Write a sequence for this structure.
């Protein structure tokens, strides 16, 4: 016999267990607060010059995508590529800020960690460039 401590919820739902799941698994106030924190994170990332430059490049890429009327698949690949670079830049910025907070003085090991995280962004940006060229060159020439 299964004992459940959930209070009775008066609903006219066909699947009462599913109703209980949604009622107790999702707190709308916490969800809204989470989105607020995410928006604050984007605002903080926009303070970083590298992130702003990459946002502008992404906007130019999307403008060109609309101008050349790319196929849906090509456009989806570009969305994924741009978002990947921006996400990696945010992670890189977070790593740099954490390291600056934990160890404000210059240290050779900290420099190596920062260099590696910056290299990850560079690698993603170069990959994005190759993908962008592969998609746009047939439309230009």
């Amino acid at each position: 016999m299964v004992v459940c401590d959930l209070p009775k919820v008066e609903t006219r739902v066909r699947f009462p267990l599913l109703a209980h799941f949604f009622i107790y698994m999702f707190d709308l106030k916490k969800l809204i607060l989470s989105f607020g924190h995410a928006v604050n994170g984007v605002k903080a990332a926009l303070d970083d010059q590298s992130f702003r430059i990459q946002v502008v490049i992404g906007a130019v890429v999307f403008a060109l995508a609309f101008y050349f009327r790319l196929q849906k698949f090509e456009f989806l690949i570009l969305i994924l590529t741009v978002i990947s670079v921006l996400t990696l830049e945010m992670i890189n910025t977070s790593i740099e800020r954490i390291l600056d907070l934990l160890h404000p003085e210059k240290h050779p090991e900290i420099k190596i960690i920062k260099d590696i995280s910056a290299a990850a962004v560079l690698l993603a940006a170069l990959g994005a460039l190759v993908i962008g060229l592969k998609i746009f060159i047939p439309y230009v020439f």
In short: Residues 49-140 form a domain with the Helix Hairpins fold (CATH 1.10.287.3610). The chain has a mean pLDDT of 89. The two ends are 71 Å apart (CA to CA). The chain has two domains: 12-45, 49-140.
